[in-house]
Write a structure and sequence with these properties.
The chain is of the alpha/beta class. It has two domains: 312 residues, TIM Barrel (Alpha-Beta Barrel), CATH 3.20.20.70; 65 residues, no CATH class. Helices cover 46% and strands 10% of the residues. The strands form three sheets. Strands 4-11-10-9-8-7-6-5 form an eight-stranded parallel β-sheet. It has a two-stranded antiparallel ribbon with strand order 1-12. A two-stranded antiparallel ribbon has the order 2-3. The radius of gyration is 22 Å and the shape is globular. The chain starts with 6 loop residues before the first helix and ends with a strand.
Length: 424
């Protein structure tokens, strides 16, 4: 297990560099980090990463509802020594922190998931591989060495493809399967719609599919469709075609002649989500794998309680970063009731809206076993690749450590509901 560097040493190094006029290349202020990333990214890319469903009310609630709680520091405790480590589902972790699955990271940086994986491995922080990754899971696993990772599964309409993904995840060292429940179809994402931009239609973010033998077999069986509607021929459509044929494995000219790249995009859009997803699918998954099964997207305590009864191994309380249902309950508002329903029988990971170490403390105090971050590390990736992701992770670890110690604790297990009061 990797031991995080001291937050005090991190802080000191930044201030000492400032004596020579150096400032952090990746901003530590989360609002500034987002603004700097927006300057670096195209309008389409920033909208895809930062945008949410509808009017963005769920994104706003995810952040604003943290302010419903206040931390109450305790002063006369010895906090000279600190240990951020935690144990979760057999993993010894340096801190209660995960990197959430983010798709299409090639939009932020050419190294995409490999850069994220290497940064996560450097700190020993588990990465949940995205189902919509820009690099195949095997490639990212190799880049991470023995570092911890899980795999996010979108339940496809094709059951053989589901089995194949699960088997590949097992074979490349993933230690849990995270079933995402809240994306049976895409939410109404107005920023993307106003720009008429969906990266999957350009062959981006579908590397788990194009590297899969079952998916390849399905493509070979697809008939040509001469009656399919053709887009207008202009510079934009030609650019899209170029991106598509370069995204598919193999030589671009071969992909163009064979039609495989175009078929891959068409097949993906037809089968990648399954509106019928229900408890029977979760029960079947137990027959496909011996790995722990985590359900991501649970927001109602009744579903959390049933998950325990059904033998699920863990939950991720998430509203998909506000990208699916506009006006949905914030995750921090949903967390206490879910923690009460679970009663400590399985771990509960908190996702959506975490921007600071103080947010981590509030989530742990309200019943989370660990937290996962998403957009902040995408912004770090956009600004400085692997090093940018690493700096974001290190910033979270330092912020969490200092807030923990200044509030009177020395380890995550010290944090409980008594650490918080409701805001006036």
């Amino acid at each position: 297990m990797t031991t995080p560097p001291s937050a005090l040493a991190h802080q000191r190094a930044i201030y000492l560099a400032g004596v020579a006029g150096e400032r952090p290349g990746v901003p530590l202020d989360p609002a500034v980090l987002e603004r700097e990333a927006e300057k670096r990214l195209s309008a389409e890319t920033f909208a895809y990463i930062a945008g949410g469903a509808g009017a963005g009310r769920t994104i706003a609630a995810n952040r604003d509802d943290f302010d419903r709680w206040r931390i109450v520091p305790r002063m006369l405790n010895d906090v000279s020594e600190v240990d951020l480590s935690t144990r979760l589902l057999g993993m010894d972790l340096p801190a209660p922190l995960f990197l959430a699955p983010l798709g299409v990271m090639e939009l932020a940086h050419p190294e995409s998931d490999k850069a994220v994986g290497r940064a996560a491995a450097k700190h020993g922080v588990p990465l949940i591989f995205s189902n919509q990754a820009s690099r195949p899971m095997e490639e990212v696993a190799k880049a991470m060495g023995g570092a911890p990772r899980w795999f996010q599964l979108y339940w496809s309409k094709n059951e053989e493809l589901v089995k194949s993904f699960v088997t590949r995840a097992e074979n490349c060292g993933c230690s849990a399967i995270v079933v995402t429940l809240d994306t049976k179809m895409l939410g109404w994402r107005v920023k993307d719609l106003d720009l008429a931009y969906l990266p999957f239609l350009r062959g981006k973010g579908i590397a788990q599919y194009t590297s899969d033998p079952v998916f390849a077999r399905l493509i070979e069986k697809m008939p040509d469709d001469p009656d399919a509607p053709k887009p207008k021929i202009n510079l934009n459509s030609l650019s899209t075609l170029w991106q598509m044929i370069n995204a598919y494995p193999g030589k671009p000219l071969d992909n163009l002649k064979s039609g495989r790249a175009r078929k891959a995009v068409k097949l993906f859009t037809e089968i990648y989500t399954n509106p019928t997803l229900n408890w029977e699918h979760i029960a079947r998954l137990r027959g496909y794998t011996k790995l722990p099964i985590i359900l991501k997207g649970v927001l109602h305590p009744d579903e959390a309680a049933r998950a325990v009864e059904e033998g699920v191994d863990g939950l991720i309380v998430s509203n998909h970063g506000g990208r699916q249902v506009d006006g949905a309950v914030s995750t921090i508002a949903a967390l206490p009731a879910i923690a009460e329903a679970v009663k400590g029988r399985i771990p509960v990971i908190f996702d959506s809206g975490v921007r600071t170490g103080a947010d981590m403390i509030k989530a742990l105090a309200l019943g989370a076993s660990a937290v996962a971050i998403g957009r902040p590390y995408a912004y770090g990736l956009a600004l400085a690749g692997e090093e940018g992701v690493s700096e974001v992770i290190r910033g979270f670890l330092s912020d969490f450590e200092l807030n923990l110690r200044l509030a009177g604790g020395t380890r995550p297990s010290d944090i409980d509901r008594e650490w918080l009061v409701a805001a006036p």
